[in-house]
Specification:
The chain is mainly α. It has 18 helices and three strands. The protein has a three-stranded antiparallel sheet. Strand 1 and strand 2 form a beta hairpin. Helix 9 crosses helix 10 and helix 15 runs antiparallel to helix 16. The longest helix is centred in the middle third of the chain and has 31 residues. 40% of the residues are buried.
């Protein structure tokens, strides 16, 4: 499917690439000399304060006597602790994503009447525009569902009769439509990918008047069958991924674009593209790829020494994708623990016990337990490393028989709520275009005529 390239074009690119480092390399010492906060991180690894939000809060440390002290992680949606939210709706025997979407968008917990109306409206909005699937998905299949989702979100601009209006009512209307429509777009893009790239049957299931988790399961399963237990667990996964503060890469992307005054579709499409990256939402797929490499190279899954040896090779860039990263371990904010990982680990263990996958769960648990020590041994230093949400989300999805192609798109389906909430908050309250500075270190040069170069 890739565009063919002539030998001349290939040779030109290879030649340019060979010259590129000589003209473009930046010595890391410059970042220190000019006190550049790489990755917008302070020297103590806290994030550079770039804004104010009421939407979500992520706590991984406290400051005592000027020192940053690690704590057990906490995640809040509009001031409500995530465990309290999940215990609340599960204790009442219902799914919670609709309630969380309302909370994040509007700022308060809905009453029964408000929640019922909100979910009815969301069901009405799920239907994609006429011929959208045929024109935007089937006619231009993509090998990656995330790229197709980004393109489709951007394309929805053309189907909106009032796309550029940044008033609150219009942004809320657009946000609700996007939250409702990303799931059917993902489902249709997935089956299109299977058909054109995997030579499998083309199956298109339309959305139904069901809660999001159930609706997604019936759309991505050829037989449309699922259990209530599967839907309950997927709903919890969606709730855990719905929001994570304004500083995460994709939410910040949404805010950066929104600060320029651009439209909702442009802002959210960019956020989708950000989430695809393996250092962000794409890490859930990387965890499973790494886990397969570990399973292939560890003969005795209960031997800590053998597991540690393999982890050492991964950190030493000799195994896996040779990035040196143990995917699923470590986080920019959380220190001692990620509350989302703790919850997913609990549900993963319950699910593994019921479907004969305890050996896989216990091996992944060993990876979590042994990585900090191996990392300290290989890299030195006393950096605290704990499991993040991606460590167990992929295993949960795998046990729910959700294809790997859908791991990161599921993250996007959930996080669209947070992106839209941050987009609206930035557009209404930010007030200034986000425009940080970059220090140029290029020496001044004298322009020379073409024939003298």
């Amino acid at each position: 499917m890739a565009t063919a390239m002539s030998e001349k074009a290939q040779g030109f690119i290879e030649n340019v690439c060979g010259q590129y480092p000589r003209h473009n390399y930046i010595d890391p010492i410059y970042y220190e000399n000019y006190n550049v906060k790489r990755g917008l991180r302070n020297a103590d690894n806290t994030g550079v304060l770039a804004g104010i939000t009421k939407i979500g809060a992520v706590h991984g440390a406290i400051v005592e006597d000027g020192e940053r002290v690690p704590i057990e992680g906490k995640l809040y949606y509009r001031g409500y602790e995530i465990n309290d939210i999940i215990n609340g709706f599960t204790g009442e025997g219902r799914q919670g994503f609709g309630e969380v979407a309302y909370l994040l968008l509007y700022g308060s917990l809905p009453t029964r009447s408000e929640l019922d109306t909100f979910e009815e409206v969301m069901c009405e909005l799920r239907t994609l525009p006429p011929s959208f699937t045929e024109d935007m998905i089937l006619k231009a299949p993509s090998p990656d569902v995330m790229n197709k989702l980004a393109r489709c979100v951007l394309a929805l601009y053309s189907y909106d009769s009032n796309p550029d209006d940044c008033s609150l009512p219009n942004m809320l209307r657009q946000s609700m439509q996007l939250i409702a429509q990303v799931a059917p777009i993902v489902a249709h893009a997935y089956f299109t990918k299977r058909h054109y790239y995997n030579n499998e049957s083309l199956i298109i299931h339309n959305p139904q008047d069901l809660p999001l988790a159930e609706n997604f399961l019936q759309m991505v399963r050829p037989d449309q069958k699922y259990t209530q237990e599967e839907a309950r667990l997927l709903d919890i996964c969606l709730v855990l991924h719905a929001e994570h503060g304004g500083g995460n890469n994709s939410s910040f992307t949404s805010r950066v674009l929104s600060s320029s005054g651009t439209d909702t579709y442009s802002a959210i499409s960019a956020a989708v593209s950000s989430l695809k990256g393996p250092k962000h939402g794409g890490a859930n797929i990387k965890v499973m790829e790494m886990f397969e490499a570990i399973k292939e190279n560890v003969r005795d899954w209960k031997d800590d020494d053998e597991i540690s040896s393999v982890l050492g090779r991964i950190i030493d860039k000799k195994l896996g994708d040779c990035s040196g990263l143990v995917y699923g371990m470590g986080h920019a904010v959380y220190t001692l623990s990620d509350p989302r990982a703790i919850l997913l680990k609990k549900y993963a263990k319950e699910l593994a016990a019921s479907n004969s996958m305890m050996p896989e769960f216990e091996l992944l648990e060993s990876v979590e337990r042994l990585t900090p020590g191996v990392f300290a041994s290989v890299k030195g230093g006393g950096k605290i490393i704990s499991a993040n949400v991606d460590m167990y989300s992929g295993l949960v999805y795998q046990m729910l028989n959700i294809p790997t192609d859908l791991f990161t798109p599921l993250f996007a389906i959930a996080r669209t709520v947070g992106w839209c909430a941050h987009r609206i908050e930035e557009a209404l309250c930010g007030g200034r275009i986000i425009r940080p500075a970059y220090r140029s270190i290029s020496a001044q040069s004298v322009y020379s005529p073409l024939e003298r170069r």
